[in-house]
Amino acid sequence: MSAPTQFKGRLNELLSQVRLQSQASAMSGGGEKYNMDPFLIADIREVIFRQQEGLQALVTSIRQDITDLNLIEQHGKTV
Fold it and tell me: Rounded to an integer, what distance in angstroms lies between the CA atom of residue 27 and that of residue 25?
């Protein structure tokens, strides 16, 4: 998550590819609605997994900060 714009750009690129393949599939008039390249699916999963890891780290950090702030607040009331 050190470069969130990099992940956002990559995810936008992958979503564009999915949309193009979806439109191509719709224009061909049949078969499966979505037919994605397995490598594209793996790339999308990797991007989402990394974002999920980053979000989890952020949530953990925020929870620790809240705990620390509560301790500071309690300590300030006892002084």
Answer: 5
Domain boundaries, the chain: 4-78
Task: Give the distance, in angstroms, between the CA of residue 29 and the centroid of all CA atoms in the same chain.
Answer: 32
One DSSP character per residue, 6-64 reads HHHHHHHHHHHHHHHHHHHHHHHTSS-S----HHHHHHHHHHHHHHHHHHHHHHHHHHH
More confident residue, 39 or 24: 39
The pTM of the full predicted model, rounded to 2 decimals, is: 0.52
What does the alpha-carbon distance between residue 43 and residue 46 come to, in Å, rounded to a whole number?
5
Write out pLDDT tens, residues 34-63: 677 888 888 889 999 999 999 999 999 999
